[in-house]
Amino acid sequence: MASIIQLVDGVVANRFEITETGLKFGRTSVNQVLIDDLAVSTEHAQINVLKDEQGVPKFVLQDLESTNGCFINEQKIDQQQLLRHKDVVRIGWNNFTFINEDEVDHEKTREVKKSWIPGVYYSKD
Questions:
Q1: The pLDDT of residue 15 is above 60
Q2: Is 4 exposed, middle or buried (CB count within 10 Å of its CB: 0-12, 13-18, 19+)?
Q3: pTM score > 0.85 for this model?
Q4: CA atoms within 13 A on the CB side of 42
């Protein structure tokens, strides 16, 4: 499935799994992702899980008529927009990264080698 990771100053603070019922963001306890920020509406946004013809889940960020809107990669969305792996979602002043394990392209890990110069490392790429 997929998840969303909350980043605080570039460091992972929280990870929220997105279930088939979706994930809701807001300032009150009725939301799965509770955000204590006055720039966030009471019920601000939600991620809906939709399935295509083959049954593959698609994840859509929907703005719930919030005061300040929702942003994907710093672009304000109208009402809803499809999420892609590694999209950065901003709600209020809070950043989240969308992770979809099904879209991950597992690249080969680079091998890091130590050079003869002290403190200098390199890879063949």
A1: yes
A2: buried
A3: no
A4: 1
User: E-strand spans in the chain?
Assistant: 2-8, 11-18, 23-26, 33-34, 45-51, 57-63, 70-72, 75-76, 80-82, 88-91, 94-100, 113-114, 121-122
Neighbours of 1 (CB within 10 A): 13
Residue-wise pLDDT tens digits, 24-48: 999 999 999 999 999 999 999 999 9
Q: Which long-range contacts (CB under 8 A, 24 or more apart) does 100-108 make?
A: 100/2, 100/59, 101/1, 101/2, 102/2, 102/56, 102/57
